[in-house]
Each structure stands twice: as structure tokens, then as C-alpha cells.
């Protein structure tokens, strides 16, 4: 926890990208930004707890253009995408999305992403924070495959919260309520070309709306905000509280290059039986056979409510020795307790294991617990459809 009393300012300049929605977020009250994938990302609209409740109870709109898309096309596009990930992508149909991790030759995670199969030979990778575009381009150079890798003019928004299906229906029609979880549809709204998917990083019902022409940024933002007024829509930043509660992991925080899919509980996405090869296959087979040395676990942290999420990795100490670190932690308003995620040796990963969290303000007791605390909401209820 930082002891500073005043948040530092962030300089705005041409070296870092502005999204097509940047001016709209300023008008909407964005009070702080961070830099994510070399792009300005709204980090707060002034009251992150109030924004959390808007997400949990109503509907919210986020600028997440920082999810800079990576487009893979060409005759070998599918085989190349499969080479990047240990997950078997053979069942990913046109119009479907899949979560994936990208691994290096040692099995370390380069990044995680949502893959969108927009056309038979056109894939978009929507990654976390990292230079994934350069990795994918580099792999393509010596792959021997006929593929083309570019960053397209695609800028996503997230429409998230239990009332998001109402807003989506009012914008796009009844098909928005019938769209299955992790599926997408191309559409046009008021002449604006879009891809709409039933995905998101909130743990709540939601959609991602991918703008395919940046010149329409302000027009699209205003159109969605207007449609959301009857449902109490609020512009917010990605909610750290809700993502921690729901186990929505963050690259560079919960996931790093030192981690592998088994460390972070994503072993189910490693398929050694698939016919195609993938980067890191031999290393991951060895890790599976021997068992991962470390695990990412949920923890409950004692003491007074945390005023803010941790700004640094806090040490996990057992018997006076550093054994791991807290990746992210928050005070959960719904649970009324401090919760978080910690990277620890497998020997300390059992539920009930006592730990000590150490930071510059002192020590706090912690316990490994069952997590996530709130499961993802993936199904639009029938009664919600009838009310829309």
C-alpha cells in the first residue's frame, strides 16, 4: 500500500495512443488514466466503489481500446493460431470466441487473450497488457506458414452489467438476447461497422462492441450512452474489485512470463492430444508430468479494510521466510472482507493454509481459501428476456 497522500499525474502526449473514445471519456468524467498496451486506459471516474456497484447492479460502459487487436489472415491462419496456443482450437467455429494462453518454448505465458474467429481465415486476438503483436509477428517470420499479421482499425468497448442485455437489445434488436456466450456477430449500427460479442472482463453479463472504423468513436459512445439512460448506465474503468472477486486474471499482475498454464489454474486449456504442434509443448508436458512448482491461490487477508488495491507485489512470509507474493488484493464491499490472489509454492496452496502478508505498513494474517468468490454470470435469464 502506498503511503503517498496525492496520486501522481500522468502526462498526455503523442507517444502514447489515444483511443477513438478518448475525448468521450474525458467528457464523461474520467479522472485518472493508466497506460496499457501503449494506450491510455481510463483508470477511474472518481469513485471506484460507486462504479463497482453500477457494474454489479445496473450497466456500465468501458473504453478498452487498449486491447489492441492482432489480426491473423491467410491460407494458414488457423494452423498458425493453433501453433501459438496449447488449447485445441479445432472446435472454434466461424462466429465463435475462445479464451487462450500464448506460451513460449519454456511453457511460460507470453500473454492471454480472447480469440475471435470473424471469418474462416480471419482471426482477431484480443490480448492483455504486453507486446503480443511483436511476438506474433516474430513467430510468423520463421513459421513457414502463409499468414499475414497486422493490427487492424478495431477499437473495443465493453458494455457490462446485469442490465446490459436490455441496452444491447435496444441498440441491435432481439438477436442480441439470443447471442450465445462467447459467440459474435457482425452488424452495422447507424452506418457504423461493428462486431458484437458476448464476452467481457467483468464477471457480469455483458458484451464487447468492436468498432471497425475509428472515425466513428464519439458517435458510437454517445449512441450507447443514450440507449443506456433508461437503465442507469455509467461510464467506468475496468473494475479491479469485481475482477479479483471473479478470478478474472490480469496479465503482468496475476500472470507473468514466469508462470505457466498449470500455475494459474488453466491446465484444462492444455491439450497434448491435438494433432497440431504448438510452442512449448515439450516443456508443458514435463511440467504436467512433474506437477507445477507454484500455484496461484485465493486468499483472505485480515486487518482493517484495504483503502486501495495494492500498488506493489506484497511479500508472502512463512516462518520468517519470503515464499511468494500477493498479485492483487482489494476490499470487497459485498463480502465485507479483504481478498486477493497470491503466487505461492504448491506446498502452501491447500485451502486453510495460514500465511503472513508483509508490506511497508506492517504484517497482516492471511489464509488460503476457495476462490473465485463470485462465479461469472454467463446466461441471460429467460425472465430478463421477457422484460426487455
**How would you name the oligomeric state of the polypeptide chains in this document?**
single chain
Gyration radius over CA: 21 Å
CATH hierarchy: architecture of the largest domain = 2-Layer Sandwich
Major sheet description: 6 strands, mixed
User: In the CATH hierarchy, what is the superfamily of the largest domain?
Assistant: Probable tRNA modification gtpase trme, domain 1
CATH secondary-structure class of the largest domain: Alpha Beta
Count of extended strands: 19
Given helix and strand content, the structural type is alpha+beta
Helix content: 10-25%
Name the beta content range. Answer: 25-35%
Would you summarize the structure shown here?
The protein has helices at 22-27, 48-57, 77-84, 132-141, 164-172, 175-178, 217-228, 240-246, 281-290, 382-387, and strands spanning 32-36, 39-44, 59-63, 70-73, 97-103, 109-119, 122-127, 148-150, 155-160, 184-189, 192-197, 206-211, 233-235, 294-301, 314-318, 321-332, 337-345, 354-359, 362-369. It is an alpha+beta fold and 388 residues long.
What does this structure look like?
The protein is an alpha+beta fold and 388 residues long. It is 21% helix and 31% strand. It contains ten helices and 19 strands. Helix 5 crosses helix 7. It is globular and about 65 Å long. It starts with 21 loop residues before the first helix and ends with a helix. The mean pLDDT is 95.
Amino acid at each position: 500500500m502506498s503511503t503517498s497522500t496525492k496520486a501522481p499525474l500522468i502526462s498526455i502526449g503523442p507517444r502514447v495512443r489515444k483511443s477513438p473514445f478518448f475525448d468521450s471519456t474525458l467528457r464523461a468524467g474520467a479522472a485518472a488514466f493508466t497506460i496499457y498496451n501503449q494506450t491510455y486506459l481510463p483508470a477511474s471516474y472518481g469513485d471506484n466503489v460507486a462504479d463497482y456497484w453500477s457494474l454489479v447492479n445496473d450497466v456500465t460502459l468501458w473504453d478498452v481500446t487498449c486491447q489492441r487487436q492482432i489480426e491473423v489472415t491467410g491460407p494458414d491462419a488457423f494452423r498458425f493460431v493453433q501453433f501459438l496456443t496449447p488449447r485445441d482450437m479445432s472446435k472454434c467455429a466461424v462466429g465463435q470466441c475462445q479464451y487462450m494462453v500464448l506460451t513460449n518454448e519454456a511453457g511460460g505465458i507470453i500473454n492471454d487473450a480472447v480469440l475471435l474467429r470473424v471469418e474462416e481465415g480471419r482471426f482477431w486476438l484480443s490480448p492483455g497488457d504486453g507486446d503480443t503483436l511483436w511476438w506474433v509477428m516474430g513467430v510468423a517470420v520463421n513459421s513457414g506458414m502463409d499468414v499475414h499479421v497486422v493490427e487492424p482499425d478495431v477499437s473495443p468497448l465493453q458494455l457490462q452489467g446485469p442490465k446490459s442485455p436490455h441496452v444491447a437489445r435496444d441498440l441491435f434488436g432481439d438477436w442480441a438476447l439470443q447471442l450465445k456466450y462467447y459467440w459474435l456477430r457482425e452488424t452495422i449500427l447507424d452506418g457504423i461497422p461493428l462486431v458484437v460479442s458476448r464476452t467481457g472482463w467483468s464477471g457480469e453479463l455483458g458484451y464487447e462492441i468492436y468498432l471497425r472504423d475509428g472515425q466513428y468513436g464519439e458517435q458510437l459512445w454517445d449512441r450507447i450512452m443514450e440507449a443506456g439512460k433508461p437503465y442507469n448506465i455509467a461510464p467506468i474503468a475496468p473494475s479491479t474489485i469485481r475482477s479479483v472477486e471473479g478470478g478474472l486474471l490480469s496479465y503482468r499482475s496475476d500472470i507473468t512470463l514466469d508462470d505457466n498454464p498449470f500455475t494459474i489454474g488453466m491446465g484444462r486449456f492444455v491439450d497434448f492430444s491435438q494433432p497440431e504442434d504448438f510452442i512449448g509443448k515439450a516443456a508443458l508436458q514435463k511440467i504436467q508430468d512433474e506437477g507445477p512448482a507454484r500455484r496461484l491461490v485465493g486468499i483472505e487477508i485480515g486487518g482493517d479494510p484495504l483503502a486501495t488495491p495494492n500498488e506493489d507485489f506484497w511479500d508472502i512470509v512463512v516462518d520468517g521466510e519470503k515464499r511468494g507474493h500477493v498479485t492483487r488484493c482489494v476490499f470487497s464491499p459485498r463480502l465485507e472482507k479483504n481478498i486477493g490472489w497470491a503466487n505461492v509454492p504448491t506446498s502452501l496452496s491447500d485451502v486453510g493454509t495460514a500465511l503472513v502478508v508483509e508490506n511497508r505498513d506492517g504484517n497482516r494474517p492471511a489464509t488460503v481459501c476457495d476462490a473465485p468468490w463470485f462465479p461469472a454470470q454467463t446466461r441471460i435469464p429467460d425472465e430478463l428476456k421477457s422484460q426487455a
